[in-house]
């Protein structure tokens, strides 16, 4: 599953948001998901299309796509140097696909700010500096070994050169992501799992009346306004009351839905569906993935033995009442190996085992 590490200064609302995301009553009632470890929550990606497809096929269950949120303890200035909680807690988020940085925008005077005042851009800078320093420590730790090994193994020359470039870049206070690298160079240092190489989503934890605000860019990105407080209230409501509450706030969807959508966009992901009497299910693939690669997400055998995919768009599947109706109307396409899967495609794979 897609995984996202949550970072941010202490007291900005990370735990509140994490708990709201992972304890949502309405979602829990529909989907059998839970927190696997105290700091890891698997959250279904809300997608109204699943219910429609399941109704058409009389599916016994719905399996949504999921996002795994990984929470870390509060990151404080100096953490990368072993002060505060030390560097080891950053290990929790090393292998995530993206980072979600929660930034305090809410003004509640009862909640102490670590720096004494609410200042989003300075908070972002503090966190980013810590992540850069943590990455610099990772690269500097790897370098001596790499220099030694590269003498024996010529294949490591590229990795060594890239690591040296990175050390310089990080040392100048830049994120790894902003260093221009070739695909080969990028691949060579993948196993360092650098935090600042990951795409970042900024979540602005705003006051209740700011949830629909259009916020100024921070660090070149539009933050996603979410109220952790609203989300934690929403999490306790049944679906009808939650819908009413959202309407009152002028929102069309919960913060979780927005967050999942933004994360998909950030990472260039989309969903396709499989549907039948047993289950209706969403599968996550990169935009641009071809049919065999999409099949491979279900099972590697499906990719290896791929023959073709009977495919209907979500709109046709609904309009013609399922696969049989689409077939009768000539809306069920036979797609081959080169087919580029589209968001919402309902697919039925034929394969050799
Ligand atoms: P963390 O240290 O980043 O995990 O922060 P917490 O989630 O523990 O929140 C710190 C404090 O801020 C708690 O007392 C929360 O109740 C409060 N808090 C969190 N989010 C909000 C919010 O959106 N609005 C307000 N007013 N308080 C919040």
Automatic annotation (TrEMBL):
Its cofactor is Mg(2+). Residues 2-246 form the OBG-type G domain. GO terms for molecular function: ATP binding; ATP hydrolysis activity; GTP binding; metal ion binding; ribosomal large subunit binding. The keyword Nucleotide-binding applies. SUPFAM superfamilies: P-loop containing nucleoside triphosphate hydrolases, TGS-like. It holds the Pfam family MMR_HSR1. PROSITE patterns: G_OBG (PS51710), TGS (PS51880). It comes from the Bacteria. Residues 268-351 form the TGS domain. ATP binds at residues 11-16. The keyword ATP-binding applies. GO terms for cellular component: cytoplasm. Keywords: ATP-binding, Magnesium, Metal-binding, Nucleotide-binding. ATPase that binds to both the 70S ribosome and the 50S ribosomal subunit in a nucleotide-independent manner. Belongs to the TRAFAC class OBG-HflX-like GTPase superfamily. OBG GTPase family. YchF/OLA1 subfamily. NCBIfam families: redox-regulated ATPase YchF. This is Ribosome-binding ATPase YchF. It comes from Berryella intestinalis. The gene is ychF.
């Amino acid at each position: 599953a897609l995984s996202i590490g949550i970072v941010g200064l202490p007291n900005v609302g990370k735990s509140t948001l994490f708990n709201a995301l992972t304890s949502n009553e309405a979602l829990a009632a529909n989907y059998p998901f839970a927190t696997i470890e105290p700091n890891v929550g698997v959250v279904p990606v809300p997608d109204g299309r699943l219910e429609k497809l399941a109704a058409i096929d009389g599916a016994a269950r719905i399996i949504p796509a999921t996002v795994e949120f990984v929470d870390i303890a509060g990151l404080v200035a100096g953490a990368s140097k072993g002060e505060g909680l030390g560097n080891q807690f950053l290990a929790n988020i090393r292998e995530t696909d993206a980072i979600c940085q929660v930034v305090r925008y809410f003004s509640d005077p009862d909640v102490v700010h670590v720096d004494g005042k609410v200042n989003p851009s300075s908070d972002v800078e503090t966190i980013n500096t810590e992540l850069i320093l943590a990455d610099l420590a990772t690269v500097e730790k790897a370098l001596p070994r790499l220099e030694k090994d590269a003498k024996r193994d010529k294949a490591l020359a590229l990795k060594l050169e890239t690591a040296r470039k990175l050390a310089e870049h990080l040392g100048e206070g830049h994120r790894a992501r902003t260093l221009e690298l070739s695909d080969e160079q990028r691949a060579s240092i993948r196993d360092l799992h650098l935090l600042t190489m990951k795409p970042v989503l900024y979540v602005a934890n705003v006051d209740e009346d700011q949830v629909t605000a259009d916020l100024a860019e921070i660090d070149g990105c539009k933050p996603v306004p979410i109220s952790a407080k609203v989300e934690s209230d929403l999490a306790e409501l049944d679906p009808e009351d939650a819908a009413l509450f959202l309407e009152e706030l002028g929102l069309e969807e919960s913060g979780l839905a927005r967050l999942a959508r933004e994360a998909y966009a950030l990472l260039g992901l989309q969903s396709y569906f499989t549907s039948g009497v047993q289950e209706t299910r969403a599968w996550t693939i990169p935009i641009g993935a071809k049919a065999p690669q999409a099949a491979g997400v279900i099972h590697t055998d499906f990719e290896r033995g791929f023959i073709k995919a009977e495919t209907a768009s979500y709109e046709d599947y609904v309009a013609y009442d399922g696969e049989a109706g689409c077939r009768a109307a000539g809306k069920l396409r036979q797609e081959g190996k080169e087919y580029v899967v589209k968001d919402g495609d309902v697919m039925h794979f034929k394969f050799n085992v």
